Amino acid sequence: MNLTGIWAAENSRKRSAVIGSGGAWEGAQWMADLRRTVQGLWGGEVLWGCPMARYSTLRAGGPAAALLEPRCTTELAGLVRGFQANGIDWLVVGGGSNILVCEQGFAGVVLHLGRQFAAISKLSNDEHGVLVTVEAGCSLARLGNWCLGHEFTGLEFATSIPGSIGGAVVMNAGAWGREIGSLVQQVTVVDTNGNLADLAGETIPFRYRSWGLHGQVVAAVTLRLGQGTRQEIEESCHQLSRRRRESQPLAKASAGSFFKNPLNGPAAGKLIEDAGLKGLQVGEAMVSLKHANFLVNMGHASADDFLRLMKIVQEKVFAMTQIWLEPEVRIIGERRK
Ligand SMILES: Cc1cc2nc3c(=O)[nH]c(=O)nc-3n(C[C@H](O)[C@H](O)[C@H](O)COP(=O)(O)OP(=O)(O)OC[C@H]3O[C@@H](n4cnc5c(N)ncnc54)[C@H](O)[C@@H]3O)c2cc1C
Description:
alpha+beta, Uridine Diphospho-n-acetylenolpyruvylglucosamine Reductase, domain 2, Uridine Diphospho-n-acetylenolpyruvylglucosamine Reductase, domain 3, Uridine Diphospho-n-acetylenolpyruvylglucosamine Reductase, domain 1, 3 domains, four-stranded mixed beta sheet, about 30% helix, disordered N terminus
């Protein structure tokens, strides 16, 4: 049986999460109906039974029923509208640097925003700086290089944060005391009805590792940057990436910090280290020896390995400190009981 078949068989019980509770939807039939509906909405390539390990920097994770890559906002909005109208579960991923799809998979369609959805344009200069608009799938790395080439400053703190600008806004990615939310002037979103709206940056309730909104897809982001010099920007980027290399296990597959830092109190990594958990391994998932808040893939870790390791870390840290660590990584799909 191929992956699609396995997926369809294993997930027949999940049909209600996607199509509703109509008892007629079962296994292979469910998949066939999904295929028909998706093909009615999308003429481009679809990856059926797509292993999400390929789309996650953890290099682990179960399959999605289908994955496709919209190339523009109109396509994105049309797909969202179509999936909503047909009761199909869907989600958006960018660089996959903060997701873990459960072993059982995701019973729906993943909309991957990547290189095809990544245009960058400069809008204007004024006394407050420069406005740059970038489509959601653009990687922070490419945007950073583009800014360096144009001598636009402000994004240096995000050097070496993997992922897309869309994911960075949703996660309010940050480092070294800065967060992306502080640069956001406007976000163009697609809502769950497939309608477009422009949200002013100051109306978005950014908080620690979240933009505070739900159910909206980031299609494009306008950032306010400053004018700098190539030399200063380059120096700052080099310095920050060196600090990362020194403190983080960048040679191993990970999702960066696996847990959020508790709001008041020691950082998650310190709590995990103090609990003596560095090096703890479940299957091929391990608490990094270099940075305790990184759970790393030692080779062929499964999503279950990561989830079991996550739970042990949460329980042991809680037993010692009464603090329950919340994952920063977004866990997708149904966990095995
Ligand atoms: C080595 C390493 C280092 C890291 N260092 C940092 C760090 O210093 N600081 C930090 O904050 N993070 C860090 N991260 C985590 C991660 O890179 C960021 O959270 C990143 O911004 C996520 O972007 P992404 O495109 O990969 O999102 P994904 O992992 O693809 O998605 C994350 C979440 O955002 C949603 N999403 C993605 N794109 C969209 C969109 N266009 N519209 C709506 N929802 C969307 C997804 O559904 C999911 O819920 C690190 C990760 C790694 C692997």
